[in-house]
Amino acid sequence: MDFFENARTTYAATNAGTLYWMLQRPMLGGGFLNTKQNSLTLNDYGAEDGVRGPDYTYGWIQGRGLEAVVTHAELFGAELPPLAEKLDTAGRRLYALLAALQKPDGHAYFCYDRDMRAVYADQANVVQTQEKPALIYTYSDAFVAKGLVAAASRYGLQDIADHLAYFDRVITAVETGRFQMDERRPLSLHSLAVQPDDFGPRMILLGAAGMLKRAGHTAHLAFADRFIAHVIDRHYDAATGLLRNVPGEDLCNVGHGIEFVGFALDYLDDTADPALIETLERILVSSFRKGFVGPGITLTVSIKTGEAQSPYCPWWSLPETIRSAALVHERTGSAESLDVWKAAHDAFFEHYWRGTPPIAYQTMTKDRPVDFVPATPDLDPGYHTGLSLLAAIRAADRLKPRTRTVSG
């Protein structure tokens, strides 16, 4: 019981600190979230930092941030009302900006320049204008659609039907081969033709299922069971308990496997097949055991050898492990899931969490923090860390009464 209570207190304080830090920073472009700080030097990025700097706004980050801001506002409405009020003010402002950005052509994009034109930095780090094919959707669409739905649901906005339709179009794009993963190249049929059959898009969009369910949008949930079945049927390696990035290939992004488990369990209810819960627990435990090389979880491992394939250990997979392990432990009560939860908790707060300021090092190797950007240079706007710890808070709250009953 002590671990659950202490973890819950730690997670709430961690998230509140990060959100206060983020909200007191000067906004970008009149209302976009500003987390443009180097996690090593603690220097703010400036115009001289190019695509890391304030002249560039990332649709990815803003969509994630909107979902995080409005979801935390609900939690803190009961526990810390002044913070909830600030979050809702920022959430309404960011919602209006993102809705206006997405509406003209029905899409959101990875990166925008200072004139809010869609651009990308290519492999040579040269900024190029992005193509805008109407029928191709991306991770940026996925994150912005999730954020718009979450905000419109919380604020009772009339455009909710349009945002749900946008989300449904992203789902359709995934299932009809029109979802492009790599946004640092032109959005095109050629890019689609050469990209691997990775489970990433289904995993990320599965992350909306729990939110949609809690908001009452049950008519838009049919995809969730299909996505879970697809990933397990095509990517699960029964011999190792790992998820292959691509069917028939060797690499496993262990963090994505762990994230998939958390999203699935956030959606599944008590009627879920016990065999599915058992498989999800195995994916969690196997992924963590193979991937946790110290101080965190490596980017990829070999299915065949179990060896780490990258020296980089990004921060995000540890809070995702906390979420997944908490939700698994709530279902199974197993010692293994609790051990994984505690190990991820200790590693994150001992090695990654800076405390002052309330941010994490983005990436570490076995020796030290390094300046390696996992996806976008902006720091996490309460999404990977915040929403993961928030799910663990909810799990801990549900576990505490059960523990008291058992001990009493």
TrEMBL record:
Domain of life, per lineage: Bacteria
GO biological process: carbohydrate metabolic process
Gene3D superfamilies: 1.50.10.10
Protein name: N-acylglucosamine 2-epimerase
Lineage: Bacteria, Pseudomonadati, Pseudomonadota, Alphaproteobacteria, Hyphomicrobiales
